[in-house]
Structure formats: C-alpha cells, structure tokens
Design goal:
Two copies of one chain form a homodimer.
Chain A lengths: L12 H14 L12 H8 L3 H13 L3 E4 L3 E4 L5 H25 L4 H18 L10
Antiparallel strand pairs in A: 1-2
The structure holds a DNA duplex.
DNA sequence: AGTACAATGATACAATTATACAATGAGACA
DNA sequence: TGTCTCATTGTATAATTGTATCATTGTACT
C-alpha cells in the first residue's frame, strides 16, 4: 500500500490512515470492489498494532465508503462523486506538500532550500524521463 | 536506566532528567530507534511523579532528539538532527524530494502539477510566516 | 502575613497495544 | 453432500502509554 504516515506529527495514526485511504479512493487508486489489505497485513507494514488499523477501517465503514466483513476482509464500496474526488485530491496534494516541507524542516532545510532541491529533481526527471533512482549515487 | 538525580541540588528534577538523557544519547549509550523507559516506569525508579518525567520528555521532544508517541512510548529519533554532516543531509533531502514526487504521482498528479502546488505552498508560507495548518478546512 | 511563581503531584482522558474471541472459507475425508 | 479442522479474517475488552488540566507545595520577594 505504501501509505505515508507520520508518527511524529501528533495526528493520531488511525486518523492518518483514514485520510490516506480516502485519498487513494478519490484518486481511483482503489476502485469499488477492490479488497483493502487485511488489518493485520497493513498493521505489519506500518509497524502498528492491527487494532489501530481496525479503528481506521471502522470509521471508513461507518461513512459507507468501505465495507468490513468479519472473516472475509474489507472492500471498497463507493467512490465519491467526481467533484468531491477532485476536492479531496487537491487537498491531499496540498497536505502532501505541507508534510514534505515539514519533513525538510526537520532536516534543517528552509522551505526555499527544499524548493530548490525539488526544482532540481523535476529538471532531472525531465532529462531522464523518470524520477531519479534512490540508489543512484551510493 | 540508573539516572543520577540529586534531589538536594536545587536544580529542578525535570531539567536533571533532560541533561542525563542528553548525555546518554551523546555518548551513544542510547542509539536512534531505542525506546526510552515509559514515563511511569522511570518515574517509579526515580520516585517522582510521572508528569515530571513527561515534562522532561516533552522538552527533549521539542528539541527533536526524541519522539514521544501517545500509547506507544518514546524513542530516540531516527532522522539525523539538522547539525548532521552536510552530505548526509543533502542525501536525505533529495531522497525526501524523490519520495514526495512519487507520492504525488500515486495521487494522480504529474511532477509539474505537484511542483506548482509546492510553489503555492511556499508563497503561502511567505505570506503567513508559517506552513499552513493541516486542520485549516476540516 | 501576603502574593506570585515555578516545580511537582493527582486525576481524568485519549491513543495504542495485548489478548482472547467469533465469523468465514478452503481443504480433507467419510 | 456433509462436516471436521484449521488458518485467516474482523471484533471486543482491558491494559499500557503519553497528554491535559488543575491542585498542592515550596520559595522568594514585599
């Protein structure tokens, strides 16, 4: 799943999981009928207790966009209407931007410095046609 | 832990705890990822109230060298502090940039679109003097 | 004495984890 | 077919961990 959650943000993990999954559904990365990871497998991936994931799933279930079934698994039921999806998507992107700057700040970089690095990254991507490999200069 | 605290020194207990733990980390007796004692267990050991330990932990958390997580515990921080070597810092920043674009792509945004959003975020930061609040429009 | 302030303690609370439990489904076998 | 067993799934509840808020204590200063 590769969900990005921040243990140091002060935002409860279960709420972060709710948001990240809503974003994936809004971005059609998860379509109706798709099965979500089991509470245990996602918990293992995120290194948290599976009850924390279960709590997130329960919230999503109560809002009706997924369906959790004991013994079977959890499945996506509805995708929000296009205009709502676009709004969620926009919010997800600005939120991602905010998190990125916050992470950069923790590494001692000002927003300006990090923005420069991001620009370089785009330039490199335009040259090579792909995002640079994390192991490229080891 | 066996922290040396002097109750008669006149120096507040929570400040002594802060100093003792800083020393342990500086001496690599506590490594990144290591879990510190819970506020209650350390309080029991030192015969003080656990709020006093919590206060010490909060100070260390604010300086970024440990991370306290409700319900989970407190851990020595993994990410290198800003004063780490420039090379490591640069590498961490480019890796962060790469991951950010990958996440944006997962949300259905091209690098160009996401870059625009990043620029807007910097502009907004320059206006308000802070990175925008995650809860601003919930 | 009285006041103000910082340090510490008491209590209630929220997030996360640990443990035991119940529902479902796949495979073995009569 | 039926049903047994067992692994896998989500559920329920209590224990553990840090947080928030206010009360208490001690000290310095008038």
């Amino acid at each position: 799943m590769n969900l990005e959650i921040d243990f140091r943000s002060g935002i409860p993990i279960y709420l972060q999981v709710v948001e990240r999954i809503r974003e994936r559904i809004a971005a059609s990365q998860l379509a109706p009928g798709d099965q979500l990871p089991t509470v245990r497998s996602l918990a293992l991936e995120l290194r948290v207790n599976f009850n924390t994931i279960a709590r997130a799933y329960r919230i999503l279930d109560e809002t009706g966009i997924i369906s959790t079934q004991q013994g079977r698994g959890t499945y996506v039921t509805n995708t929000p209407p296009p205009e709502a999806s676009e709004k969620i998507r926009q919010k997800a992107l600005t939120e991602l931007a905010r998190r990125s700057f916050a992470d950069a700040e923790r590494l001692g970089a000002s927003p300006e410095e990090f923005n420069q690095i991001l620009k370089d990254q785009v330039a490199h991507w335009q040259q090579t046609g792909r995002l640079s490999n994390p192991d490229s200069d080891n």
